[in-house]
Automatic annotation (TrEMBL):
It comes from Thiomonas delicata (Thiomonas cuprina). This is DUF2442 domain-containing protein. It holds the Pfam family DUF2442. InterPro entries: DUF2442 (IPR018841), NE0471-like_N (IPR036782). It comes from the Bacteria.
Length: 80
């Protein structure tokens, strides 16, 4: 991806998928499963906090100052 796109909406599901909408209107799905055993995301594993994801400053964030870069979300997600 050559242009950095901000996330404008997120819907986090209990199966560790994120349904994302980017500022260009594109909708994509990102599977967090491979990251859930790694810091800092391990804190969210098995916790209802995972579904509390929100958008702040163009990326996805969780309580506890946990976030993930928007370019990672875009590059590793699939179109819906």
């Amino acid at each position: 991806m050559d242009i950095l796109l901000d996330v404008v909406r997120v819907d986090a599901k209990p199966d560790y998928t994120l349904f994302l909408e980017f500022e260009n209107g594109e909708k994509r799905v990102f599977d967090m499963t491979p990251l859930m055993d790694k810091k800092p995301f391990v804190q969210l594993k098995g916790s209802p906090l995972f579904t509390k994801a929100s958008v702040d400053y163009g990326t996805v964030v969780w309580p506890g100052n946990i976030d993930i870069a928007p370019e990672t979300l875009y590059d590793r997600s699939l179109p819906v």
